[in-house]
Amino acid sequence: MKKSIAEIADKAYQSGKEYEKTYRGCSQCVIAALQDALEIRNDDIFKSATGLAGGTGLAGDSGCGAYIGAVLVLSSLVGRERNNFSDAEGIRFKTHQLSRRFRERFIQEYGSVVCRDIQNKILGRYYYLPDPQEYEKFHNAGAHDIHCPEVVGRAAKWMTEILLEENLLISP
Predict the structure, then answer these.
(1) Rounded to an integer, what distance in angstroms lies between the CA atom of residue 140 and that of residue 127?
(2) At 171, phi and psi to the nearest 5?
(3) d(CA 118, CA 126)
(4) Alpha-carbon distance 23 to 8, whole Å?
(5) Alpha helices of 23-64 — where are they, by DSSP H?
(6) CA distance 6 to 12
(7) How far apart are CA 67 and CA 13, in angstroms?
(8) pLDDT in tens, 3-53
(9) In this predicted model, what pLDDT tens digit does every residue of 121-132 receive, in sequence order?
(10) HEC readout, 69-90
(11) What is the rounded CA–CA span in Å between residue 63 and residue 21?
(12) Which string of DSSP letters, residue by residue, matches 80-124?
């Protein structure tokens, strides 16, 4: 029996939350959740996202890892191919459109797609995660148990909805 978009999106949400609580690394956790829920595993994309956690290298000054990870999955499905670099068909413009749609959802919820800004909104301050004392404070503030898992879960849910609503996959 075919699952509904809501059921698949909920699976992505729950998996994303659990992966972030268990393994950490928001970009890889959202990728794993999307790949599992949508049955589209790709270990190269998962591995390539390793350095994106915590706003890239834990520094917090670039895009949220969950946000970037979800866009990586989208781009892997609806992106231009290296052997079609010229992209005469304009495939990249569909990717851009859907990325903006996802971005708008993120900004509506968190006011930004930047890790530092999201930390300020959900935790009340920014933590410089490469510093061990700051990392401990971040963890003690519930970042890994409550806040970041929620961001990862929502990112996975929202991207699942976009991909399935756009008929970019056959739902599992």
Answers:
(1) 11
(2) -65, 140
(3) 8
(4) 22
(5) 26-38, 43-48
(6) 10
(7) 14
(8) 999 999 999 999 999 999 999 999 999 999 999 999 999 999 999 999 999
(9) 999 999 999 999
(10) HHHHHHHHHCCCCHHHCCCCCC
(11) 20
(12) --GGGTT-TT-HHHHHHHHHHHHHHHHHHHHS-SBHHHHHHHHHS
Say how far apart CA 54 and CA 62 lie, in whole Å.
8
Place of tokens 């933590």: 127
In a domain, 170, yes or no: no
* Full residue range of the structural domain in which residue 125 is found: 5-165
Determine, yes or no, domain membership for 119.
yes
What's the burial of 23, exposed, middle or buried (CB within 10 Å: 0-12/13-18/19+)?
exposed
Q: How many domains does the chain have?
A: 1
Q: Classify residue 44: in a domain, yes or no.
A: yes
Identity at 165, one-letter amino acid code: E
Q: How far apart are CA 26 and CA 20, in angstroms?
A: 6
Q: For residue range 78-105, list pLDDT tens digits in order.
A: 999 999 999 999 999 999 999 999 999 9
